[in-house]
UniProtKB/TrEMBL annotation:
Keywords linked to the UniProt accession: Signal
Taxonomy, superkingdom: Bacteria
Keyword field contains Signal: yes
Stored InterPro entries: Dev_Immune_Receptor, DUF285, Liste_lipo_26, LRR_dom_sf
Gene3D superfamilies recorded: Ribonuclease Inhibitor
Keyword Signal: yes
Alphabetical list of NCBIfam families matching this protein: Liste_lipo_26
Signal sequence interval, chain numbering: 1-23
Coiled coil: none
Protein name as annotated: BspA family leucine-rich repeat surface protein
Lineage: Bacteria, Pseudomonadati, Bacteroidota, Bacteroidia, Bacteroidales
Length: 445
């Protein structure tokens, strides 16, 4: 176990059967306090676990230590205080002072709300061994443990858990490997699971049953040191929301989404936004055909050089800021994508200062009635050619004249082969508003 501060709280299950025979001989009335066995009133054994049946007796047993001079450090096999539904006993309070708490049993039959009141914020290491119980898992997943840096799961079972939401939110954990934990196929969300884990460097979710997961929203958001992610074997066929999934993963250089079943995803808003070091993304056989909104999907990825969405079949009606401020982007492949009926392309490529050519000819770029094209290519200072062949801008009545409005001085050619007269007229109006209206030619043949 990795110990980084004095405060350690270990949460685990230890069976009463493993205690010495001398302890078991007090059947129904055994409390092990720092290795010294003593008896107390109102104690019974339930499912091979020690149970306090009276809150006051539990408090007295721990607080008085029955006259022994050695401080209470470990309380073995205490399941719960039967008449204390708020768990407002000295069990947790004493753990804060001593730095160690051992709780045991099938943790499904009492209220763990006290653990969510900020009293265990100093926890640095958590080990779950052979723990069974959904309610305990739910409570523990909401702990605000900003000092938590090490977590292990060994032979644990949470058979009815449906959510891993906020499981390690804001913790100081440095790595996480899925294993040793059994959850049901009813798991439906991983939202915020690692949100704001700013020390996290490596994650492997290989083997996690994700068949019914619908949300990956904010899964790795603000994991500023995350550089290695393994999602191999994960089945995301039910996922509909990938919004902010990798938002602000500053150290992430490459992401492999190839082969992931994402065909029901509808939202990819800000999915990769703010990934400062991200240089490549593998979308091979990644189906985004049902996406309806990809706002800011790649915004502020200054190191991203190439985006190939040809195999992803991206279909989106909201592309606002999709590639905004991708300063190093020099190649975008959108063939096989479907932007038919798109309603918002505001600032879609704004600030892509390295981009020299954009080809929209193979992506059914047919904006809907009143679609907003405001500043779509503004600040693309190296842009020389845009291919609108086969596109139809005739219904774009909102801000089409501002397509190339500012800092598109390198623009020379607009291809419009097969475009209708209304589209050519709108493109000419946009050229007239540009920095270099006399230097841009529209090619129609």
């Amino acid at each position: 176990m990795n110990i980084k501060t004095k405060s350690i709280i270990t949460l685990c299950l230890t069976a009463l059967a493993s205690m010495p025979l001398s302890a078991q001989s007090y059947f129904g009335s055994v409390v092990d306090i720092d290795g010294t066995y003593t008896t107390a009133k109102n104690i019974k054994v339930e499912a091979n676990q020690v149970v306090f049946t009276d809150h006051k007796d539990a408090t007295h047993t721990i607080a008085s230590n029955h006259g022994y001079s050695t401080p209470v450090k470990v309380i073995h096999d205490v399941l719960y205080c039967e008449n204390d539904e708020t768990m407002n006993s000295e069990l947790v309070n004493k753990a804060v002072k001593t730095g160690q708490l051992t709780l045991s049993g099938t943790l499904n039959n009492h209220n763990w709300s006290l653990l969510n009141e900020g009293k265990l914020n100093g926890i640095t290491s958590a080990h779950f061994h052979n723990v069974i119980g959904d309610e305990a898992f739910t409570a523990l997943s909401n702990l605000k443990c900003s000092s938590l840096s090490y977590v292990t799961f060994e032979d644990c079972s949470f058979p009815n858990v449906t959510s891993l939401e906020r499981l390690l939110y804001g913790s100081a954990i440095t790595s996480f490997t899925w294993g040793g934990m059994n959850v049901s196929g009813n798991l439906n969300t991983l939202s915020y699971m690692f949100h704001d884990c700013q020390s996290l460097q490596s994650v492997s979710l290989k083997g996690l049953n994700t068949n019914n997961v619908t949300s990956l929203n904010n899964l790795f958001c603000n994991c500023k040191n995350l550089s290695n992610i393994d999602l191999s074997g994960c089945d995301f066929i039910s996922v509909t929301d990938c919004g902010n999934m990798f938002y602000n993963c500053d150290k992430l250089q490459a992401i492999d989404l190839s082969g992931l079943k994402l065909q029901n995803v509808k939202t990819t808003n800000a999915m990769f936004r703010g990934c400062d070091m991200l240089a490549s993304i593998n979308f091979t056989d990644c189906d985004f055909s049902k996406v309806t909104s990809s706002t800011e999907m790649f915004q502020n990825c200054p190191r991203l050089q190439t985006v190939d969405l040809s195999g992803a079949k991206l279909s989106s009606n909201n592309c606002e800021g999709m590639f905004k401020y991708c300063n190093d982007l020099n190649s975008v492949t959108l063939s096989n994508c479907n932007f038919e009926g798109v309603t918002n392309c505001r600032e879609m490529f704004r600030g892509c200062t390295s981009l020299k050519e954009i080809d929209l000819s193979g992506c059914k770029f047919i904006p809907a009635d009143g679609a907003d094209l405001y500043f779509m290519f503004v600040d693309c200072s190296s842009l020389e050619t845009v291919d609108f062949s086969g596109c139809d801008l005739s219904k774009s009545t909102n801000n089409h004249e501002y397509l190339f409005y500012i800092n598109c001085k390198a623009l020379k050619t607009i291809r419009a082969v097969g475009c209708n007269d209304a589209t050519i007229t709108k493109l000419q109006e946009a050229i007239n508003r540009s920095d270099n209206p006399s230097g841009v030619a529209i090619v129609t043949k």
